[in-house]
Design goal:
8 helices, HMP/HMP-P_kinase_dom
Length: 277
């Protein structure tokens, strides 16, 4: 009997018990797109749709052991990294990944809360830029995170162009700068590819409070499309289209008392099968 394998995506991220963001959102997106999801927990935020109440750390040794257990057994076709909130955690993740064969990596640099508060310290940012960026294939900052990384205000599309160029030169292979905070009738995102070319994506803006976890979902979706065999530019475009439609299909649903989740399963795909090599 012929045997197959599933395209797998590993998410390295924080927890969200309300199910809209973090590892929960990643697993939903990866599964909805027909990939097999594995996960490593980096932190235990206590949160719901209304906000984060507290954050409990996961011991660094436990993070390393989780990573090793997955990479020794279910080696991923792509990796998504989300919440890495200390320099020591960055060291743990990067040092462990480097002991294994190279794999495509999408990094969502979670640095700023919805309230505008910074979630990480300067030494963590230095560790991320110095150690994680060199192994990152697609970096997905929003405008607030881009402002921190580029050390400049980012309020307009012109600002996004300048900031994106600066960030790509920090060492990551490519950058998708998300423009969800633009005050415009259409949402604009800019993708700076590894050659330096800039690709613009535009989507209709519509009113909804249900955008909790959209950044987590996007990075997981891009990693999933890469695992499915798409080239990076195509994966970036497909990931954004998936998130836009997931928000659209969940915009009128009430979940919780705050910012609700996306509808990750508006068009769920069956698990894909790849031939065993």
């Amino acid at each position: 009997m012929k045997q197959y394998r599933y395209p797998s995506v590993l998410t390295i991220a924080g927890f969200d018990g309300s199910g809209g963001a973090g590892i929960q959102a990643d697993i939903k997106a990866i599964s909805a797109l027909g990939c097999y999801a594995t996960s490593v927990l980096t932190a235990l935020p206590v949160q719901n749709t209304q906000g984060v109440r507290s954050i409990y750390p996961i011991p660094y040794g436990a993070v390393q052991e989780q990573l090793e257990a997955i990479l020794d057994d279910v080696f991923p076709d792509a990796v998504k990294i989300g919440m890495v909130h200390t320099a020591e955690l960055v060291d743990t993740v990067v040092d462990t990944l480097r002991r294994y064969p190279r794999m495509p990596l999408v990094f969502d640099p979670v640095m700023v809360a919805t309230s505008g508060d910074r979630l990480i310290e300067d030494d963590t940012i230095e560790a991320i830029v110095g150690k994680l960026f060199p192994i990152t294939d697609v970096l997905t900052p929003n405008m607030d995170e881009a402002a921190i990384l580029a050390e400049m205000p980012v309020h307009t599309v012109d600002d996004m162009h300048r900031a994106g160029e600066k960030i790509r030169k920090l060492g990551c292979r490519s950058v998708l700068l998300k423009g969800g905070h633009l005050d415009m009738p259409r949402l604009t995102s800019l993708y700076f590819d590894e050659t330096g070319a800039v690709h613009e994506f535009g989507f209709e803006r519509f009113h909804t409070a249900n955008t909790h976890g959209s950044g987590c979902t996007l990075s997981a979706a891009i990693a999933s499309y890469i695992a499915l065999g798409k080239e990076t530019l195509e994966a970036v475009g497909a990931g954004q289209d998936y998130v836009h439609r997931a928000i659209l299909h969940g915009r009128d649903v009430l979940v919780g008392k705050g910012n609700g989740p996306l509808n990750h399963f508006f068009d769920p795909q069956k698990l894909k099968k790849h031939d065993l090599v």
